[in-house]
Amino acid sequence: MRNLRMGESVLIIGESGSGKSTSIRNLDPSSTFIISVIGKPLPIKGFRNKYKHIDNWNDNKNNWYVSDNYQSILKCVDAVKKRDDIKVLIVDDFQYVMANEFMRRASESGWNKFSEISNHAWLIINEITNLRNDLVSFILCHSETDEYGLVKTKTIGKMLNEKISIEGMFTTVLHSMKNDSGYQFLTQHDGKHLAKSPMGLFDDEYVPNDLSLVLDKLASYYE
User: Fold this and answer.
1) Residue among 42, 40, 68 at smallest CA distance from 32
2) Core-most of 32, 96, 104, 160, by most CB within 10 Å?
3) Strand pairing partners for 173?
4) Is residue 66 domain-resident?
5) What is the distance between the alpha carbons of residues 76 and 73, in angstroms, rounded to a whole number?
6) Dihedral sign (CA 155, 160, 162, 166)
7) Residue 87 Cα distances to 35, 80, 93, 183, 223, angstroms
8) Distance CA 23, CA 20 (A)
9) Which of 78, 154, 87 is nearest to 121 (CA)?
10) Four-point Cα dihedral 92, 173, 74, 100, nearest 10
11) Using CA atoms, how far apart are residues 178 and 209, in angstroms rounded to an integer?
12) CATH of the domain at 79
């Protein structure tokens, strides 16, 4: 894979079962690192042999880490940045960073917790969008439909949405869905789904749900 500009990051939004995790299938495990927020096995044949959990931050061999704690995730991202062998960083089921913290703090009164949860989400995204020139990141999130009928990144409610626009922190936002052509990524806003991509990055409105294809397109576009 050719080098990309610093901080090249892509947000992938979609309903459960729409093909987000499956889109990882053609990435090279030797150069891919996955941060799994809830630790579920991915729907990839031979997944457990391809992705092994790291034992500590000095582990320079394995490529799988499970945590929903924002501080631990930030430490992991920092460790991945120092590994020249890793070219792709993925955060799977990112929305559970917010949802799980909210549930752990459900008994807290007051509204400060919403500001803190949104700040923790922002810290992760900000860190992931400032990577090495040759390290590309993908954040995979579930979707939800807001009161205006727009399909967007799932968070934990209106107050958090008012504090942080996750889609606005990315240049490229792809929406994962299944249509008559199979499992695909929507590359542009269709009036309902909040997808976007730079002009000329993709030739078509829909492309196969394959992150290796997206990597090739990004490399050609930004070189």
Assistant:
1) 42
2) 32
3) 11, 196
4) yes
5) 5
6) negative
7) 14, 9, 20, 25, 16
8) 5
9) 154
10) -50
11) 9
12) 3.40.50
Task: Encode the chain (223 residues) as per-residue pLDDT tens digits.
Answer: 445 444 489 999 999 888 899 999 999 999 999 999 999 888 888 999 999 999 888 888 899 999 999 999 999 999 999 999 999 999 999 999 999 999 999 899 888 888 888 889 989 998 988 888 889 999 999 988 888 888 888 887 665 667 667 888 898 999 999 888 889 999 999 889 989 999 999 999 999 999 999 999 988 887 7
Please check whether residue 3 lies inside any domain of the structure.
no
N residues, the chain: 223
28 vs 85, 154, 195, CA distance in Å? 11, 28, 26
Q: Per DSSP, what are the bridge partners of residue 140?
A: 12
Domain assignment of residue 213, given as a range: 9-222
Contact 27, 211 (CB under 8 A): yes
Examine residue 144 and state whether it is found in any structural domain, yes or no: yes
Tokens representing 106? 């459900």
pTM value is 0.91
Tally the domains of the chain. 1
